Amino acid sequence: MKQEKKLTPREQPRTSETQAQPAEVHEFQTAEELLRHDASQTAVPPAVARRLDESIQREPKPERPWWKRLTGG
Prior knowledge:
- The structure is a single chain.
- The chain is 55% helix and 0% strand.
- By secondary structure, the chain is mainly alpha-helical.
- The longest helix has 13 residues, at 46-58.
């Protein structure tokens, strides 16, 4: 027969804390909704944000649309 290990007084509060935390369940309708939710919950590390800004600065500027060049707008 298997013997069960009794919890010490130190271990008992830990198990009650983990049981008291309800898991939040959220069902997403689309992948885009999941990504938007994740992005709102996740902080971008400063190093990554800086590298992204630098990369965007190096991108070439888009040409003006042909109709703006034609009309001078």
